[in-house]
Amino acid sequence: MRDYHAPFEPDHFYHVYNRGNNQQNIFLEEKNYNFFLKRWDKYLDKYLDVWAYCLMPNHFHFIVRVKDEDRLAKFQKPGKSYNELISNQFRKLFIAYTKSFNKVYERTGSLFQKPFKRVKIDSEQYLQHLIHYIHHNPIHHHFTSNYTDWKYSSHSSILSKQPTKVRRKEILKLFRDKQSFTTYHEEMKDYNKIDHLIME
After folding, report:
1. Can you tell me the distance from the alpha carbon of 156 to that of 26, in angstroms, rounded to the nearest whole number?
2. Number of H-type helices and E-type strands within the chain
3. Could you tell me the residue range of the domain that residue 126 belongs to?
4. How much is the pTM?
5. Is residue 5 part of a domain?
6. Cα(68)–Cα(24) distance, integer angstroms
7. Rounded to whole angstroms, how far apart are CA atoms 27 and 186?
8. Cβ 152 vs Cβ 33: under 8 Å
9. 172-199 tens-digit pLDDT
């Protein structure tokens, strides 16, 4: 049975996913995507390293690695687990984004589904497959016909030389080099191999 709410642990990888209530859109225009990423930096940058992400109109995917125990310990409160610490930061992110979104678009109530989902990634092979899957997700949902054209994913950031929140060097090393990363993404993949890690 899939564990969609795996506890966050130091030095482990996770696939994190959430979407709008009743599949409603959570991003309506470009400034929404940018604002969400800024709120991510504010609430989660100290706790997680981002390895890949993709934001789409009604949902998002992130692949993250929890920082090591030494870095997390300075933020931990007595009696609270690392999972509680990080889950609370996600809660703050969703609340902050929703408050701003509701104010701008004159709406009320919750925006995101609760609770958000996360699955632990247990091998480098699955990690590679998931990065491919997430970058191709806008095609799967018919938001674009070419994953390289989708502005709101980490794919272009990994290939560029511009500053990025994404762990570019580590990702390219995972795929061996930039050319191998590109070739891997151009190939069709059998996602059945990572079915237990995919959340839609």
Report:
1. 22
2. 7, 4
3. 13-197
4. 0.94
5. no
6. 35
7. 27
8. yes
9. 999 999 999 999 999 987 777 777 677 7
